[in-house]
C-alpha cells in the first residue's frame, strides 16, 4: 500500500512538474509573492532594531521557509469543490489528497528552483551561519511545509460547507503574517508572549525554522510543537475530507 501510494505521488509529481514548465512567468510571480512580506519585515525591523538580534540572517532563512512551504490549496481545491470538478478527481486512480500533495510538491520544487539562483548568492553575501545551522534548519522546514499544507488543506475543505473559504484563507494569511514570525520575529518578543507565539501553528509553519537556524529558537521544543500540529491538523484534514466528500456526493458542489 505504501509503495503504491509513493508510486502514485511520484508519477503525479513528475506530470505536474513538467506541466508547470510552461508557466515560469507565473511561477516567478509566486516567488515574488512569497518573498515580498519577509523582505518588508526585514526592512522594518532593520530600521527599528538595527543592533538587536541577527535580523538579516533570520529573514534570510524566513524567505527560504516561505518559498519552501508555499501552499495555494485554498484556491485550487476550494474552486474545484465550488464548480463541481472535484467529481473528476474522485474518479482518478489514487487517493485525491495524496494527488493534491504531489501537486503541491511540484509547485514548491519549481519555486525553489527559480529562487535558488538569487537566494544562494545572497546567503553567501550575508554569511554568518554554519553548516550545523543548515542541518538544524532542514527538519524544521520540512515539518513547516507539512503544517502549512495541512492548514491550507483544511481551509480549502471548508468549501464543502461555505462559500466564504477565500475569506477564511485571507484571515489565515493575515495570521501567518502577524503571528507567523514575519511581522513579529521571536527574538523581539518577551516571555511569556514568546512561549505563546512559538506554540501556534502559524509560527510553527513559518518563523520557527528561521529562528532555529539563527539560534534564537529551540530545536527540541520547536519540533515537539510541530509534531503536535502535524498530528492535529492531519486528523482534522482527514475528518473534513471524509465528511465533506459524503456531503459533496449527496448534494454536489
Could you describe the 3D structure shown?
With 253 residues, this protein is an all-alpha fold. It has one domain (2-251). It is built from 12 helices and no strands. It has helices at residues 2-20, 24-48, 55-68, 73-83, 86-91, 96-126, 131-157, 165-179, 193-198, 201-204, 207-214, 219-251. Helix 7 runs antiparallel to helix 11 (207-214). The longest helix has 33 residues, at 219-251. The two termini are 30 Å apart. The model has no long low-confidence stretch (mean pLDDT 87).
Mean of pLDDT = 87
If helices are DSSP runs of H or I spanning 4 or more residues, what is the number of helices? 12
Largest sheet: none
Give the strand content: under 5%
Straight-line distance between termini: 30 Å
Compute the gyration radius: what is it?
Answer: 19 Å
Helix/strand class: mainly alpha
- pLDDT < 50 stretches: none
Write the layout of secondary structure elements.
Blueprint: H1 2-20, H2 24-48, H3 55-68, H4 73-83, H5 86-91, H6 96-126, H7 131-157, H8 165-179, H9 193-198, H10 201-204, H11 207-214, H12 219-251
Helix pairs in contact: 1-6, 2-3, 2-6, 3-6, 3-11, 4-7, 7-8, 7-11, 7-12
Structure described in brief:
This protein is mostly helical. The protein has helices spanning 2-20, 24-48, 55-68, 73-83, 86-91, 96-126, 131-157, 165-179, 193-198, 201-204, 207-214, 219-251. The chain is built from 12 helices and no strands.
Amino acid at each position: 500500500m505504501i509503495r503504491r501510494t509513493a508510486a502514485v505521488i511520484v508519477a503525479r509529481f513528475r506530470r505536474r512538474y513538467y506541466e508547470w514548465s510552461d508557466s515560469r512567468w507565473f511561477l516567478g510571480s509566486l516567488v515574488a509573492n512569497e518573498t515580498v512580506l519577509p523582505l518588508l519585515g526585514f526592512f522594518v525591523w532593520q530600521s527599528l532594531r538595527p543592533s538587536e538580534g541577527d535580523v538579516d540572517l533570520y529573514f534570510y532563512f524566513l524567505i527560504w521557509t516561505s518559498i519552501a512551504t508555499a501552499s495555494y490549496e485554498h484556491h485550487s481545491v476550494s474552486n474545484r469543490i465550488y464548480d463541481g470538478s472535484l467529481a473528476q478527481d474522485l474518479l482518478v486512480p489514487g487517493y485525491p489528497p495524496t494527488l493534491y500533495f504531489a501537486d503541491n510538491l511540484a509547485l514548491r520544487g519549481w519555486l525553489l528552483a527559480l529562487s535558488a539562483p538569487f537566494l544562494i548568492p545572497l546567503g553567501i553575501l550575508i554569511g554568518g551561519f554554519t553548516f550545523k545551522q543548515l542541518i538544524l534548519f532542514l527538519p524544521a522546514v520540512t515539518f513547516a511545509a507539512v503544517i502549512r499544507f495541512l492548514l491550507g488543506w483544511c481551509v480549502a475543505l471548508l468549501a464543502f460547507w461555505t462559500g466564504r473559504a477565500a475569506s477564511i484563507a485571507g484571515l489565515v494569511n493575515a495570521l501567518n503574517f502577524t503571528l507567523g514570525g514575519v511581522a513579529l520575529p521571536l527574538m523581539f518578543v518577551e516571555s511569556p508572549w514568546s512561549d505563546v507565539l512559538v506554540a501556534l501553528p502559524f509560527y510553527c509553519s513559518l518563523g520557527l525554522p528561521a529562528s532555529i537556524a539563527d539560534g534564537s529558537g529551540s530545536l527540541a521544543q520547536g519540533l515537539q510543537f510541530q509534531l503536535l500540529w502535524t498530528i492535529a491538523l492531519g486528523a482534522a484534514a482527514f475528518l473534513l475530507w471524509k465528511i465533506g466528500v459524503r456531503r459533496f456526493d449527496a448534494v454536489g458542489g
